[in-house]
Design brief:
432 residues, 12 helices, 26% strand, 7-stranded antiparallel beta sheet, single chain
């Protein structure tokens, strides 16, 4: 007969029964108006999977353990893992210029696979023309910083990482990620927009509930966010990164997981490795990644020290809020997942005239300007966020348009009154 820890997949002093995880997930999904969600926990060598709700708000098909939810940027963990497998096989070198690998020496000058995977390439976040050819977009891209000098989250960088995979393997990105990673893990993938993929849903705005939304991702950005997987699939992906020999040898895995000194992902995580984020709480350090697609929110957390993996998927835009509440409840049950706590309060200070202006990351513009009714406001890619307040640590908040509460948003870079850049959502934008 199996022990309680084997049965429920939890090695702590108080084992977590599957029915308890089920109750928590169902309650929180109802609270946040999320149509369907999955939770999978690998602990003590056993995976426990629960789910709640429906795949589609109108069709009412129940969310199942194998329902494939668009995982958004968690796809980058898969892409980075494939790159690292190729590096372990000596098909790629981490510090070789990508232009040389692709036979175009002038392409992304000075950028290496190490820079791409750690978001220190200096490439902008997204292409200006999503219908254009990837390499053409990169040739025309204006860097936000020299390679290896700062963190700036870049989907375009992962599009280029996908091009490296294709050049080295002779396969498409989809073929390579399936053959090298997913099939060995016995994962049956789906992709954004495919028939098996669960639709995302917007936030519930009335009695009809959240409405389904179509997934849309241009082919050139598939390596950055195209996969659709279940929470159970994500646990299997996370298992690769528990530090044990497997698809990645121990040395290559350690290189991938090691924190990159110049990768400071302000607002996203506490550190970054090669394709994987660091989340810290005191002595607790977990690896992982967050991902959002159109109307979905997914999280992956990996505790190497405790050989534990937690994966969560939600087919609703409010899934991120649900995740924050879920982490608090899982921590109370003994799973010490680091929480993303708001920064300590800082003293408000006036915004100097020299900090007003427009800051640019590729095609994205961020403008700090005087507010219509006093104070200041942020215009992010055309959307106005009022009530911008600067603090003495150079961070700033804006007023949430839904709740009206101050919300941490970003920080200024450079001398006070002479800002040269801002950081928002892990993206660096230079003064234009």
């Amino acid at each position: 007969m199996r022990s309680a820890s084997e049965q429920y997949g939890h090695t702590g002093r108080n084992p977590v029964p599957k029915r308890r995880l089920q109750e928590i997930l169902a309650r929180l999904a109802g609270r946040h108006g999320v149509p369907g969600a999955q939770l999978a926990v690998l602990d003590g060598g056993v995976t426990t999977v629960v789910q709640t709700g429906v795949e589609h708000q109108d069709r009412k098909r129940p969310m199942g353990p194998s329902s494939a939810v668009p995982i958004g940027s968690v796809t980058k963990v898969a892409t980075a893992t494939v790159v690292m497998v190729l590096i372990a096989d000596d098909d790629l070198e981490l510090d070789q210029p990508v232009g040389e690998i692709l036979g175009e020496p002038g392409l992304a000058e000075g950028v290496t696979p190490r820079h791409l995977l750690s978001h220190t390439s200096g490439l902008p976040s997204d292409p200006a023309d999503v219908t254009g050819v990837c390499l053409r977009e990169i040739r025309a891209a204006v860097s936000v910083c020299p390679p290896g000098t700062a963190f700036s989250y870049s989907n375009l960088g992962y599009a280029l990482a996908g091009s490296l995979i294709e050049a080295v393997t002779g396969m498409t990105w989809r073929e390579a990620v399936e053959a090298i990673l997913l099939r060995p893990l016995k994962i049956e993938p789906a992709y954004a927009g495919s028939p098996r993929t669960v639709p995302g849903h917007g936030r519930a705005t009335g009695p009809a509930g959240a409405r389904p939304v179509e997934q849309a991702l241009p082919p050139m950005l598939e390596p950055a966010g195209a996969l659709a997987l279940s929470a159970a699939d994500l646990v299997e992906l996370g298992r690769v990164h528990l530090g044990k020999p497997g698809l990645l040898d121990v040395v290559t895995a350690a290189d991938m997981h090691r924190r990159v000194p110049d990768a400071e992902p302000y607002g996203l995580a506490d550190g970054w490795g090669l394709g994987i984020a660091h989340y810290e709480d005191g002595d607790e350090v977990w690896l992982g990644h967050d991902g959002t697609a159109d109307g979905t929110s997914c999280q992956l957390r990996i505790d190497q020290a405790g050989a534990c993996v937690v994966a969560f998927t939600a087919n609703g835009a409010a899934g991120t809020d649900l995740w924050h509440d879920l982490v608090a409840e899982l921590r109370a049950l003994g799973l010490a997942i680091p929480e993303r706590r708001p920064p300590a309060p800082a003293r408000p200070v006036p915004i100097a005239a020299g900090d007003f202006g427009t800051y640019r990351n590729g095609a994205l513009d961020y403008t700090i300007r005087p507010g219509e009714h006093g104070g200041a406001e942020l215009v992010a890619d055309g959307e106005v966020f009022p009530g911008l307040t600067l603090h003495d640590d150079a961070s700033f908040t804006v007023r949430d348009p839904v709740t009206g509460r101050p919300t941490p948003c970003g920080r200024l870079r450079g001398t006070p009154g002479e800002a040269t850049a801002i950081e928002i959502g892990g993206r660096l934008a230079r003064r234009h």
